[in-house]
Amino acid sequence: MTHALTALTMPKFGLAMTEGKLASWAFSPGDTVKEGDEVADIETSKITSGYESPASGILRKQVAQAGETLPVGALLGVVADADVSDADIEAFIASFKADTAEEGGEEAEAANTEPRLIKAGDHNLNVRDVGKGGSAPLLLIHGFGGDLSNWMLNQDVLARSHRVITFDLPGHGASSKDVGDGSVTALADAVSELLKALNISSAHVMGHSLGGGIALALLRDNPGVVASLTLVAPAGLGREVNAPALKDMVEADRTRDMQKALEALVHDKSLVGRKMADNVLKVRRLDGARDALRTIEASCFGNGQQSFDMRPVLDAARVPVTLFWGEEDEILPVTGAKNVPDSVTKHIMPKIGHMPQLEKTAELNRLVEAFLEKSHVTA
To answer: What is d(CA 306, CA 296) in angstroms, rounded to the nearest whole number?
Structure first.
């Protein structure tokens, strides 16, 4: 059942966006809109992009006017069913603004929560832990060469209803650089140790790319720990991989080269800027960082192929599983999605690359929230 009233809010395009300009409305009050219709154009310092309506209904109210610059999350307008009264619309707007003011302190606290190092077995892992909730927490596992910032558009949104934990894998970000043999088994062991260190007996697990393979290894080796599984362009479901792109992400040592390497991660290349490339290079230049990634690369993607097969794990899974994959993935081809059982709910996203959590943020967040609600497990 869809909600009778839906808020249109300032979206977040790109990693650094904190505010945007409502350039123009594509619909007028009273017009019928469908979910996915581009209802407005949003300008940032780098791009202009259409904002897609998250719901179908009638554009009942334009709260913001063309030309206004507003923070991410600000109310732009309201979509509602025809039978919703004008008084209910105004009450909804007043309630939204009141809730925003009331929750502003909590959201600011979440946004400003700094990562901290946690001892997990033999590793020191850089961990960011935000949000609350009575159900099992959500653990997000990033991919090869990434870090916890890969989830920065997802963590705080999902933390409105769950405790959500991100961390840097061993060999990545600010975590310690010992990766053992670099295998998904070794990395999954580190994840298991982290859950023990946080006194978490059961968690919803969401893994991207190599992180998806690690999540599957965690399910294989510690099945009681995984309450549900969300896979985003996961490794381990086929042999093919863009090995040259992975090598470039490890070895590039100039901003321009790193920017070009990172562009393989997304379909919309404008999302990758020099600042992002510079930030990745800073991490690569830490002592032991490149060697750690080379070890993982050799173990997981040796001879230009994925060297581990997680399809049997998925076939045997006894927990809820959902899958997201971009049709234009240049790192792990979307054909891997064919190798999952029918019990897995698939979301194949057109015109999206290897990082749906960045390129299709709002939709992915919404679908993950719905999946977690269905997969509710008390911790």
So the answer is: 11
Task: Give percent above pLDDT 90 in the chain.
Answer: 74
Rounded to whole angstroms, how far apart are CA atoms 262 and 275?
Answer: 12
150 Cβ partners below 8 Å, 6+ apart? 142, 143, 208, 355, 357, 358
Q: Is the domain of 322 the same as that of 359? A: yes
Residue 294: Cβ-neighbour burial (10 angstroms; 0-12, 13-18, 19+):
middle
Taking only the tens place, the pLDDT of each residue in 124-147 is: 999 999 988 767 999 999 999 999
Residue found by looking up tokens 């190798």 in the block: 339
Per-residue exposure over 38-66, b if at least 16 CB sit within 10 Å of its own CB, e if not:
ebbbbbbeeeebebbbbbebbbbbbbbee
247 within 8 A of 308, measured Cβ to Cβ: no
58 CA to centre of own chain: 30
Out of 85, 105, 125, a domain closes at: 105
Q: Which amino acid is at 359?
A: E
Q: How far apart are the C-alpha atoms of 120 and 122, rounded to whole Å? A: 6
**Can you give the residue range of the structural domain that contains 227?**
116-374
One domain for residues 87 and 160? no
Q: Which amino acid is at 357?
A: Q
Q: Tell whether pTM > 0.85.
A: no
Helix or strand run (H / E) with residue 9: strand 5-9
